[in-house]
Structure formats: C-alpha cells, structure tokens
Fold this sequence. Notes:
Two copies of one chain form a homodimer.
Chain A lengths: L3 E6 L3 H10 L5 E7 L3 E4 L6 H8 L39 E3 L3 H7 L6 E4 L8 H11 L4 E5 L4 H9 L1 H7 L1 E4 L8 H9 L5 E12 L8 H8 L7 H6 L2 H10 L3 E4 L6 H7 L8 E8 L10 E7 L5 E7 L6 H21 L4 E3 L9
Parallel strand pairs in A: 1-2, 1-5, 5-6, 6-7, 7-13, 8-10
Antiparallel strand pairs in A: 2-3, 3-4, 8-11, 9-10, 11-12
Helix pairs in contact in A: 1-12, 4-6
Amino acid sequence: MDDVRFAVLGTGGIGRRTLEVSQHKDGLTAVAACDRNGVAVDHGGLDVEELLDATEGNIASGPADDVATDGGAAAAPEGVKQHGEQAGVVASDQGRPTETPIDDVIAESDAIDAVLVALPNLEHDFIPRVAERFAEADYEGVLVDVLKRSRVIGMLDDREETLKESGITFVCGAGATPGFLTGAAALAAQSFVEVEEVEIWWGVGLKSGYEDNRGTVREDIAHLDGYDIETAREMSEAEIEELIDDHDGVLEFNDMEHADDVLLERAGICDAEDVHVGGVLDVRSDEKPTTTTVSVTGTTFDGETGTNTFQLDDVTSMEANVNGPALGYLKAGVRNNRAGHYGVFGPADLMPGF
Amino acid sequence: MDDVRFAVLGTGGIGRRTLEVSQHKDGLTAVAACDRNGVAVDHGGLDVEELLDATEGNIASGPADDVATDGGAAAAPEGVKQHGEQAGVVASDQGRPTETPIDDVIAESDAIDAVLVALPNLEHDFIPRVAERFAEADYEGVLVDVLKRSRVIGMLDDREETLKESGITFVCGAGATPGFLTGAAALAAQSFVEVEEVEIWWGVGLKSGYEDNRGTVREDIAHLDGYDIETAREMSEAEIEELIDDHDGVLEFNDMEHADDVLLERAGICDAEDVHVGGVLDVRSDEKPTTTTVSVTGTTFDGETGTNTFQLDDVTSMEANVNGPALGYLKAGVRNNRAGHYGVFGPADLMPGF
C-alpha cells in the first residue's frame, strides 16, 4: 500500500500510543494531531517523538468530570493530568493554540488519508457528530474510532448516506473490543455454517497505566450493575477511588454493552443477542487477572458442534491490543476508501465474508 | 453484499463440499460446475442437491496415478472412485458431456462473479495456467484456489499483470492452511510491532473421509522426508497403502512447504523463514491426533514478548475448515473485485493491515 497520511484527534492515552505505535509501522505518516487547546500539523510528517515528549504527563483536559461534556469542541480523550495553559499539544514546538482544533484538522483534510478519532464518547452522539462535520467539509477519506457502545453504531448508520456522499469510509469500533476481538470472532466463525454463541472475555491489568486511562476506567464503571453512563460521568474522582477500593482494585464486568454484538450481527455472523462480552479489570496490578479469550461456538456443515478459540498472551498490554488493531483497521479502511467503498464498516465487515 | 454467482472447477472432495457448504450461506448461488468429462451450467442456480446425489461416490477421474497429469484439461481434483463413462457431473440430470470443461465454464463467465478452482495442482503451474486462460477470455471476476505450495504464489505473481488487465482478483491459498490459519496468524499479529515466529500446527483425522481425500493425502506425502512431488505422484496406490501401514496410519509432517510463509511475508507480517508449518495426519481415526493451533510470537510496542494463539476445536473437520474459509475468502474477493482491486491476493492481504 502507498503511504498513508493520518491524523489523530485527541492526544490522551489512545491517541498518544497510536502515534507511538505508528512509528513502528511501514507506510504510516502522522501529519496532524490535536487536543482541546492545540493543533499540530506537518504534511511532511510530524516529529512524533518531540510531540510525545512535550506532552508526556501533560495532557490538555478539563477537570475529569468535565470530560466530553463540551461536545462540539475537541475534548481530551481521557481525564488525566493538566498543567496550566501550556498543557497538551501546545507544549510541543510543533503545536499552536486554537479554539477550533477539530475544524483546524478538517481544514487540512484534503491532504489526509485517514483520521483516528481518539476522543471520548461519553455523549453517545459526539463521535457521530464529528463525522458529520468531516462530511460537511466534503472530506474524502477514512475515519476510525475505537468506540465501545453498541448504540453508537446505529447513530453512525443514521448518518451513512451523508458519509457516503462525502466519500468517507468510517471504520467503527476498531480497538481491542470491539475491534481486534470482533475480528477474531468473525474469523473463528469460518469453521461453522451456524454460529450459536460468541463469548468475549477480557483481562486487563492497568497498574502502571492507570493514570493514563482514567477515562477508560470511568467508561467501564458505567457497565457495572447499578451504574450507567450518566451516573459514571457524574462521579467525582474520589467516588471512583472509593468504588475501586470497595472492590480491592478488581472490577468484574458481565454482559457489557459492547458493540461486538451489533457489529457481528451486521456482518451476518450471528444474532446480537448471542454475543456476550465481559471481563476483569485490575487497576492495582499489571498482571492480567484473567486471560483474554474469544470463544466462538457453532455447528459445522457436517453437523458437529464445537468451539474455536483465540487467546491473547497475558503479557500483551491493553494498549498494544488497542493501538495495533486500530492502525491495522485504519490501513484496511484506506484500502477500501481508495477502492470507493464508502459508508460505515465494522471490523467484521473487513474480514472474510460469512 | 449482493448475490454472488459462483462456479466450481473440479467436483472432487473440495469442490463437492464447497457446493454443499454454499447451501448454508446467504448470497451465494452456484451456477456452474465441471469435472474432466462434464459440465453443468444453470444461471438461475444449479440444483446442488441433485448434482451432489448424482455424483456421490462417482467422481470422474483417471486412475489415481494419472491425476493432474493431463494439465490443460479439467482434471478431477482428487484421485477417487470412477464408475465408467457416466462418471461425475455427466451422471447428473444437469450435466452434459464435454471435452473442454474449463473452456465451457469460461464461455459462461460473463455471468459468473467468482470461480473456485478446486483442481489438483501436482504440476505447479497448472492452476496459474488455468488463470491465464480466464484472463485470455477477458474474464472480470474472482478466482479462488486452495493451493498449498509456496512456489505457486510466485507463478501467480508472474502473471499478475495479465490478471489485472483482465480484471481478475485472484485469491490464492484460501483453504485451511494456507487460508484460514494464515488469516488467523495475520490477525494474531496485531498485538505486535515485530513478529518473530509463526507456528502453524494442524491435526487431521481422516478415517471416514479417506476415500474422498486420497489426492490430498498423496500431496501431503510429498512433504515427508525422502519424498517430493514427483516421487509422490509416481507412487502406486499399493505403495501409498504400504507407507501408511509403516506409520500405523499416522503421518507427522514438519517444516512443510506451505504457502503460509510467502503469504505472510507478502502482507508484511514477518519473513517467510520465520513461518513454520507442520502437523499430524491420522488416516485411520476421525479423531484429530493433535489440536490445530496457530501461535504467533512477537514483541509489543511496549517491549513485551508474547504469543497469541488461535485454536480450532478438535471436532471441526478438515473439510469444514477448508470449505467455510474458501467461501469466506471468495466473498472477500468479490468485495475487492467489485471495488476494482485486481491482481493476486493472499488471505493475509484481506485482513487488517500490519
């Protein structure tokens, strides 16, 4: 594939690490990055190392409980540390302050092949609305997000005609789960003519990455019994710490609303209701509390019922399993976009057909 | 995806079972099938059940040790039973005798979206030459094969310009391995920025399918120490039986020449020499002698070295793991073809980019 010039909206944990991982990949050039206060653009290729060094532990964000409530502007992806007015991208030599970071990237988008949207989506329609803004500017290219929630897919589908008219290939849910593990489920299904159940079970040990991933943890809390997105958003940092204390740092999730279900259904692999997602998060250890496993149970054409499995090594971090696949799906999105395939695609849509 | 009209060249084990599996799939209509003596075409859709019933245990083939030596004509895919002049497709109400079965399918190819080439390839360039004949007829569509040998990929690549000019998307090595397991390796690599080793280890129990898969067994024997394609082709049935007896029915293969290596290298995932393929074949039991496992070892962006694994349930038959993926990759090929992506693609090229 020819060189892919990409931008990152949001330079919190996911945005930063995607920039870092892209340095290891052939054919990927980061040309723009922004956060709520700043934007950096260099069509010859950003100096990613300088940008990451300058923003290390210095990510532009409002107070944690303000995250993503500003909707229309570029919010920081995760509620993490802030260091005064020079926080975030503007602390880099390549950055400049702006009040319209997303619009500034859109203004450059003629020379951008793909955009990773690493913004928080606590408001469900925030990322769909960002996509709309790219479409309004007649962007022809790829948008990729790493969203989790099932209901967002429908909001993107509602905008599919607008995206198609613009020439946008939107790859949604392209992180670890949904994303990496959705793709694994789609592939594992290939032994079967009928899929009965998909079980996705993840383990994450987040001790050393906890500070960088508070936004993710907050979003996970919304999946716990007795919590929802609104209550999770309204919790103070102290309340979150208390909740984590009550669970000795280990939170177990069952039947999460993860878009794996609708993404597998739209690819024709199984009914959404036959997909179950859960996992265990340990914020006090880097060891995974359980092994991340995808189990796909189905029936073969010759009448046998079996379970194929995909397992990630416990040493592979959540970060590695989000950012590698995000870039992998981004590349697949570019292949599709250059071929004129526009609209909304899930990870399973980019796999062999079922 | 809109309806895909497909043809099968060769109605031995793989061709027959692909027709059977397609009955379970949405959006696939079998419109043509041929073997060395006959062809059946119905653009409204073949009566697959009638065709399979009529050809059950009745596959047109020369004597086993003649298999695939006729090159230019449609050879039967595997050296199995023959029952006189009415053997194979001509035994079906839908079949008619022909001396030019492949040309007869090519003549209909304007109305065919994809062709599964389930012909034997003991002569390495046989399938590449069949592809050339489709290109000479200006076929615009997909060709899929389930070949195994690494060296065939180069022969296809040599013809890539011809295929592109015609508008052909050739998906090569789209069975179990290479194919299903190559795709799994490509996906499992997504945790890593550097892949150090891919190990593909398969188990096949073939007791009840032995008669239908003698051609495959013969091709596997060519991978044993002390054998090659020529010696395997020249062995009589009695000699093969004797070899199998000597091994009590269980043949173990190491460092096989399987195209997984070049297919993963061409997708940029690792060097061909870091891919190892082996397995155990038991022709006297339906139980798999070992669990089919793909292990991908690599290093993450954050410096950890780990191994992701993909395992097929022991109850999933070799047949299920060849024919489901063959149709899955066929569908992916059609998506690419309709988007104007022509040339030679391996399974890993149809996965998220690395």
